[in-house]
């Protein structure tokens, strides 16, 4: 099946194989082990970059570097991997964040072998999720990735770690059952049986079936993203997890939710997506505002940052819901950008914690005096998080705002509402982030004068990690095309697919309207918010999508 | 001249390089970089000097009729959507470049003296340089998105610099207040940009203006919608230029070191709002309702600021309210369509207000020797007095500034303010009356400030006066309001050199501080002559984008002189009344200000408490948001999480029940899954 060297399989398997070798390394206190883990992490990341640099064609939207081997033929399970514009940037992000997380976990004294082994295993699992092209394989790796996270939280976490870890595993494991259910249903649908994602995407499902599977995927990925009201595991998990685990959790694992939504819900079920996109937009706004307000009243530094993640991931939902190429582009960029920013902030929160030995904001205060460099880096991270121009968060949020404002499928009232409420998040974000920064770093030092020592400030390793995170954030902010061009072809292709669905749905609706058939309840609900608007004037800014909304517009009688 | 334009992008890049160089030095080799101290300053000042020379060259070439230069590149793209960035050099840009670079350059020189003993000396220079880069980037922006980018960047620099002394609680509060208030404005600006893009499909000022006109006149979009978008955009300038109702952050921002107050919060950044209104003129001018709103906002703000400045005892807060008031004049000018008059006032104000602020810094620097490093004392005019004897250079330049801002001919402020008032009279006499009254109040409070600070006996050694100030802290409200008691505890760190105070009399500041004052005095006196009604060179150079050069030249030379004499007489008259009153009260003490204050107690309290804006905002917005956030957290904890935990509890119960079903046979589980999938498919199909 594969005529080239199995690059992707190598990349995915390398950390896992390295993890298996960990018990053989004669090391008790973790000093050699951490270099080993870091070396493997970096090697894999470098290899990833090199592979994509030489073997990946950014001008094509097709799956590339594909490999397929039959694994368990009785079940129809194939080891099938491949990358395209949706997964490639996220795989690079995964390699980067994981390497940095291993480097951040420099002082693990408790069961170091298990710790680094699990970190490497988790590394592999994340790469596998983004590369899997077989539904069953996707599900298996998705489940596999939960185990290391569970253990990492429940062994190396804070005082409430068991509660947090159990909550995490219950939420995500329960939700992922829906992936299996929906995947199986799709595989059995119709005459052919296959788990291959490309085949599944080709099938024509009935609308009801699409809507149901869509809802199932939405629950599964909604827990991961997380979408309100499935988000409550996240502050607990972040509050208890150690900094490196938080970095991976916020930097990569949340992105799996967004990736899943784009891969399954949009690519495979575009018709249902056209119906349910308004729901996603509303959920996105709820995430933004609700997450921000929640963050404002959190008393724990890492819980505050966790709620800020909820808020920022809301933008991904809105971008996905905009149904345009600009929106999809912004959603992917927001995932990458948030991955970098959130992991930088969680890392710095960990650095601060190592000095203050508390995460309770009220017990900190004035620590800038003791660690001015950490303060400076934290300020940069905060600025990036509140979408300061010149940094990546601004570009992605601006793109998403533009996509909503110019989206041709929604009514003016709906667009105004979504934009306005999402923009309220723009005010709330600095309110809670700067309050947090002020309460932690500004003011008189909470530490006794004699406790302040030069060693308290960031050491070169920590400065290096933080700066390596900040450099790409600023690079994307200064010249976003440097990242967006690597996946733009793909998001345009996805948008074109969705566009077809919009046209199809519009035609179906006009037929229905002619026949005056009673609509089913969920359709009514979807129609209530979807599109009664067509632009009466045309100008350079509008894409051809305006035509289809003109098709939809007369189709809605109510 | 062409290479000059090709490389004009270097103007903001030079200071950015300086900031990056020093900044990365601070992050990676903190101690070594700090040890170099003045070397850093030299590097940063040289970079800015290079940018300043280029700016002068560009202004020269623009005056000699070089056409507008525009260079863009594609910055972001998604599918068929493209967003370009770049730079444009036209008359307005050239003027702004020169104003920003000259003021920034002088402030940087001044900083060397002012911050000489501060441990954050190097960091301060890095921030200053970063700010200069952002501000220069703002003025060369060719489209709205790029303006928005640099708009926020200057806001961030302002945040960093207001909170520069981060161990002061008041500074931290003020910095956050400044940022959040500006974000409220940016929220409007962003929505306005999105709205205008949605209707016109462009980010270019002129194209937006033209298309919007077309769409409105052909009835494709309602004038109401266009007005809403324009007003949303105006929220941005309103916040940045401290216009009512978003003016509350500027006085608090005085917590930052004084050079910052001069550069950012008087001369350049706060004027960015006026600059943006000028850039958006093609959009605003076509919508009379919005123009009216802008004019009245400006006029009211001018009055509001002046009415509060009368009762301020903190020299910097007094100047801050005066800045709010002067910005009000500029915005009013823009609103009545007096494009070049508003920008002319922007330019003259930049010079004389920078000088006044630097002068106040020099005073504070001198006072600190006597009263110690406590802003509650060193900035309070009640313990100053008679400083002219000790610091003659500072006193002279401050007097020049007072005369300029009061509108006494031939100083700079007279010409620009008078032009605005003249245009206001033509547009709407009510606006003129408000502006004219404000001019009188301005003269009064500026000379009150001058007399209290520089004339009479020196009160700094009166322990009684100091004790009173410390005992009864000035009324402090709101999250950002300064509470002197906090400062009492918060003055180690940056004042670690506290030991050397204790001299009996203040001293004149070092040359690095007085020299910039003297240099700034030159434009404060002379630059107004560019815009006399006899031959208005300024108007011939800076004219509205809706005008042609020929029209502007005609307007510039054909002023109605008889009307000018009447208007000028009126405004000089009320200024002289203001000055006389101030001298009677604070120089000769013929009138007791306390007695007057007691007679008009409610009005006095209104002014002293800044019209209670901080109290209202604190009660409504700050506490309101906190309350909502707390409630949301409770909901999250009890309802959302509670529901899930309850489900979990149910699951445990059912799990217990299902235990009896568990027989460990794989076939059984497979059957369950199969049935579930089957049910799913059946329901679906």
How would you describe this protein?
The complex is a heterodimer of chains A (558) and B (685). By secondary structure, chain A is mostly helical. Chain A has helices at residues 7-21, 31-55, 88-104, 112-131, 135-156, 161-188, 197-202, 207-224, 233-240, 243-266, 270-296, 301-321, 325-356, 372-385, 392-406, 412-441, 460-478, 481-484, 488-515, 521-529, 545-552; strands spanning 64-72, 77-83. In chain A, a hairpin with a 4-residue loop joins strand 1 and strand 2. In chain A, helix 3 (88-104) packs antiparallel against helix 4 (112-131), helix 12 (301-321) runs antiparallel to helix 13 (325-356) and helix 13 packs across helix 19. The longest helix of chain A is centred in the middle third of the chain and has 32 residues, at 325-356. The termini of chain A are far apart. The model of chain A is unreliable at 517-558 (pLDDT under 50). Chain B is mostly helical. Chain B is 73% helix and 3% strand. A two-stranded antiparallel sheet of chain B has the order 1-2. The interface between A and B is large, with 88 and 74 residues.
């Amino acid at each position: 099946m594969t005529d080239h060297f199995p690059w992707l399989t190598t990349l995915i398997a390398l950390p896992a194989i390295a993890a298996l070798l960990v018990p053989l390394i004669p090391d008790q206190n973790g000093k050699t082990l951490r270099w080993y883990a870091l070396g493997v992490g970096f090697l894999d990341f470098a290899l990833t970059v090199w592979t994509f640099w030489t073997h990946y064609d950014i001008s094509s939207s097709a799956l590339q570097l594909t490999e397929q081997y039959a694994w368990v033929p009785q079940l129809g399970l194939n080891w099938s991997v491949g990358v395209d514009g949706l997964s490639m940037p996220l795989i690079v992000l995964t390699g980067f964040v994981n390497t940095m997380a291993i480097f951040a976990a420099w002082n693990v004294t408790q069961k170091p072998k298990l710790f680094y082994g699990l970190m490497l295993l988790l590394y592999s699992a994340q790469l596998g999720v983004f590369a899997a092209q077989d539904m069953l394989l996707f599900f298996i790796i998705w489940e596999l990735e939960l185990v290391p996270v569970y253990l990492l939280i429940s062994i190396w976490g804070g005082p409430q770690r068991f509660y947090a870890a159990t909550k995490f595993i219950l939420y995500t494991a329960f939700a992922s059952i829906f992936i299996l259910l929906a995947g199986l249903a799709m595989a059995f649908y119709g005459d052919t049986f296959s788990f291959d994602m490309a085949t599944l995407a080709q099938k024509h499902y009935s609308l009801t079936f699409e809507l149901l599977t869509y809802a199932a995927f939405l629950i599964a990925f909604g827990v991961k993203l997380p979408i309100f009201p499935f988000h409550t595991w996240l502050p607990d998990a972040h509050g208890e997890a150690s900094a490196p685990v938080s970095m991976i959790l916020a930097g990569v694992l949340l992105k799996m939710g967004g990736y899943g939504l784009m891969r399954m819900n949009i690519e495979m079920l575009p018709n249902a997506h056209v119906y349910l996109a308004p729901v996603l937009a509303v959920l996105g706004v709820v995430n933004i505002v609700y997450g921000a307000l929640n963050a404002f009243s959190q008393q724990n530094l890492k819980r505050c940052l966790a709620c800020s993640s909820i808020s920022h991931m809301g933008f991904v939902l809105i971008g996905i819901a905009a149904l345009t190429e600009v929106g999809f582009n912004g959603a992917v960029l927001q995932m990458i950008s948030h991955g970098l920013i959130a992991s930088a902030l969680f890392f710095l929160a960990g650095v601060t914690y190592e000095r203050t030995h508390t995460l309770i904001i009220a017990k900190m205060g004035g620590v800038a005096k003791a660690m001015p460099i950490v303060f400076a880096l934290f300020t940069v991270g905060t600025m990036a998080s509140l979408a300061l121009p010149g940094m990546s968060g601004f570009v992605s949020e601006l793109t998403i705002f533009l996509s909503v404002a110019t989206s041709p499928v929604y009514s003016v009232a709906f667009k105004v509402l979504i934009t306005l409420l999402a923009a309220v998040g723009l005010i709330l974000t600095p309110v809670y982030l700067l309050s947090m920064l002020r309460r932690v770093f500004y003011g008189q030092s909470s530490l006794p004068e004699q406790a302040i020592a030069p060693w308290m400030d960031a050491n070169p390793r920590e400065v290096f990690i933080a700066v390596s995170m900040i450099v790409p954030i600023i690079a994307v902010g200064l010249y976003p095309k440097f990242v967006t061009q690597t996946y733009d072809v793909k998001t345009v292709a996805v948008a074109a697919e969705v566009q077809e669905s919009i046209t199809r749905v519009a035609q179906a609706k006009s037929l229905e309207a002619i026949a005056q058939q009673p609509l089913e309840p969920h359709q009514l609900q979807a129609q209530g918010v979807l599109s009664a608007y067509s632009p009466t004037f045309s100008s350079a800014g509008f894409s051809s999508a305006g035509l289809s909304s003109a098709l939809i517009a007369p189709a809605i009688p109510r | 001249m062409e290479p000059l334009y090709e490389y004009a992008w270097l103007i903001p890049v030079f200071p950015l390089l300086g900031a990056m160089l020093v900044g990365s030095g601070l992050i990676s080799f903190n101690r070594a970089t700090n040890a170099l101290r003045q070397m850093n300053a030299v590097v940063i000042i040289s970079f800015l000097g290079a940018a300043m020379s280029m700016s002068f060259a560009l202004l020269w070439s623009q005056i000699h009729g070089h056409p507008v230069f525009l260079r863009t590149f594609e910055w972001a793209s998604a599918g068929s959507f493209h967003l370009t960035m770049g730079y444009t050099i036209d008359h307005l840009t050239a003027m702004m470049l020169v104003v920003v670079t000259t003021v920034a350059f002088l402030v940087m020189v001044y900083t060397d003296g002012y911050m000489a003993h501060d441990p954050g000396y190097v960091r301060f220079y890095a921030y200053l340089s970063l700010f200069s880069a952002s501000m220069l980037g703002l003025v060369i922006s060719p489209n709205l998105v790029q303006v928005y980018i640099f708009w926020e960047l200057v806001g961030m620099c302002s945040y960093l610099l207001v909170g520069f002394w981060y161990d002061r609680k008041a500074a931290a509060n003020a910095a956050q207040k400044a940022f959040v208030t500006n974000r409220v404005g940016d929220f409007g600006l962003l929505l306005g940009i999105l709205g205008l893009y949605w209707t016109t499909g462009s980010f270019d000022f002129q194209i937006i203006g033209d298309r919007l006109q077309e769409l409105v006149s052909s009835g494709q979009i309602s004038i109401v919608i266009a007005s809403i978008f324009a007003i949303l955009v105006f929220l941005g300038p309103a916040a940045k230029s401290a216009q009512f109702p978003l003016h509350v952050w500027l006085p608090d921002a005085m917590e930052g070191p004084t050079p910052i107050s001069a550069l950012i919060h008087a001369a350049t950044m706060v004027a960015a709002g006026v600059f943006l209104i000028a850039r958006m003129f093609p959009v605003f001018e076509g919508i009379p309702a919005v123009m009216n709103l802008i004019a009245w906002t400006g006029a009211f703000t001018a009055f509001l600021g002046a009415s509060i400045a009368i009762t301020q005892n903190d020299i910097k807060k007094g100047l801050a309210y005066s800045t709010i008031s002067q910005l009000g004049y500029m915005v009013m000018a823009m609103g009545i369509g007096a494009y070049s008059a508003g920008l002319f006032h922007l330019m003259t104000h930049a010079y004389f207000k920078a000088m006044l602020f630097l002068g106040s810094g020099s005073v504070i620097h001198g006072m600190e020797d006597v009263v110690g490093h406590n802003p509650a004392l060193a900035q309070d005019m009640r313990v100053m007095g008679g400083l002219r004897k000790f610091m003659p250079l500072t006193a002279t330049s401050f007097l020049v500034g007072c005369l300029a801002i009061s509108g006494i001919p031939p100083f700079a402020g007279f010409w620009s303010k008078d032009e605005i008032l003249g245009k206001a009279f033509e547009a709407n006499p009510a606006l003129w009356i408000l502006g004219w009254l404000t001019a009188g109040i301005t003269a009064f409070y500026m000379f009150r400030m001058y007399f209290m600070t520089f004339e009479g006996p020196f009160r700094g050694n009166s322990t009684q006066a100091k004790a009173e100030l410390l005992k009864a802290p000035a009324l402090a409200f709101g999250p950002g309001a300064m509470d002197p008691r906090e400062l009492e505890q918060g003055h180690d760190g940056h004042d670690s050199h506290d030991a050397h105070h204790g001299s009996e009399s203040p001293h004149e500041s070092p040359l690095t501080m007085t020299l910039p004052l003297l240099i700034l005095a030159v434009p404060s006196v002379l630059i107004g002559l560019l815009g006399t009604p006899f031959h208005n060179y300024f108007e011939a150079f800076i004219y509205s984008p809706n005008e042609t050069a020929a029209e502007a030249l005609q307007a510039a030379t054909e002023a109605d002189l008889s009307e000018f004499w009447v208007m000028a007489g009126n405004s000089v008259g009320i200024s002289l009344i203001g000055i006389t009153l101030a001298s009677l009260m604070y120089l000769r003490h013929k009138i007791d200000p306390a007695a007057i204050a007691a007679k008009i107690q409610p009005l006095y309290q209104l002014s002293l408490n800044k019209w209670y804006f901080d109290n209202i905002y604190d009660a409504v917005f700050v506490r309101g948001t906190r309350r909502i956030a707390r409630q949301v957290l409770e909901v999250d904890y009890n309802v959302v999480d509670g529901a899930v935990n309850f489900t979990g509890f149910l699951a445990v119960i059912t799990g217990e029940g299902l235990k009896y079903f568990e027989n460990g046979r794989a076939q059984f589980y497979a059957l369950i899954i199969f049935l579930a999938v089957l049910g799913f498919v059946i329901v679906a199909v």
